[in-house]
Specification:
single chain; alpha/beta; Aspartate Aminotransferase, domain 1; 2 domains; four-stranded antiparallel sheet
Length: about 425
Amino acid sequence: MYIVGEAEAEAAARVIREGALFRYGVGGECDRFEARYADYLSGGSADAHVTMTVSGTYALTAALVAAGIGPGDEVVVPAHTYMATATAVLAAGAIPVIVDIDESITLDPQALEEAVGPRTRAVIPVHMWGTAANMDAILEIAERHGLVVIEDACQAVGGSYEGRRLGTIGLLGAYSFNYYKNMTAGEGGAVYTSSADLDQLVRCSVDPCHFYWDGREEGFTPFAGLGARASEITGAILNVQLDRLPGMVESMRTERRQILEATQPLEAIGLTQSPMHSPDWDCAAHAFYLLPTTEAATIFSELASGVIAGKTGRHNYTEWDQVLAKQGAAHPQMNPFNFPENAECRADYDPEMCVRSLDILDRTVLIPMDPRHAPAEVEAIAHNIEVAARVALEGRDRSSAELRDTTPLDRQKFDLASVDGD
């Protein structure tokens, strides 16, 4: 969460005062948000469709269902993402295949190429920590192998890849409006697609009764999806947040650009700026630095108020307990790992299966950006990065006076390892 205030409170209060808490036949905030967000994502295309849901996790599940992914299918997911990317695959009845990331902290296209097998049906590139995955390379591989591309843009709301909004490049895209996301209503999610037919399937997955609210449609047979529709309070808050989003993202881009430019000379002593695939377009929610050793990363992160990517809990595949234990459902007969259709799917998980990813993650430090930072705070952050780098990489002594007060914000304080945030 970045900025939430009186405008959001008033929007929610208006819905409550009017007694318009339910979207069908009562309120209009969800409909308005879906139309506005579709317009924002697509640049005004008449073919854009957005469907709200209760979470980014369910948005991923609905997207997979709409794409026809199910038993007998493998879906490639990166080793570093919130575990919902993998559990959504299981919710659809398919099997996640976990592959390495590269130094951008996103899916390694070469690892995707090597992972494609006879059962591989789809890939979910994740735009992690607000930075864009290498979509050109991923799309080229997917097209050659006939793979469905479903974007996980849950952590990248407001970002783009070379001018195209993240989540609109693949067949479908999923978003999260959880408390820790760029645009928030506390919880919430959405699915984007440019296909009216796929949107129908998404809507049925989110709310199988919506066809009764809006009337039955000839030629479409609804199925028993789960109830996961959003409330009008969520829609009202998100309509205000959408107004804030462009300015917040632009502020973070400016901040990150200033910090990276100020700290670029530190590459001479070994502080490497992690590669980015679309730095002028992504969310710029974090600056990423790659240290030569885990010991240096630990010292650097402590002094620079950063977070080591490898210590962010369930964002790392080694902490996906339900996946590693092959507990894909409460009832054994509903567990995709037990489906005969999945017997030939690859599910040989091991905590050491992606050691290259673990090495990269343990040496990568995230420095959070924030649109509320004043110029003096941005300057202080850059200064502290330099101090931290010289201590970590040159072994310099420091006194507490060398670090400037950056007035830490709530977003920088929370323990990322405790966040289950899609």
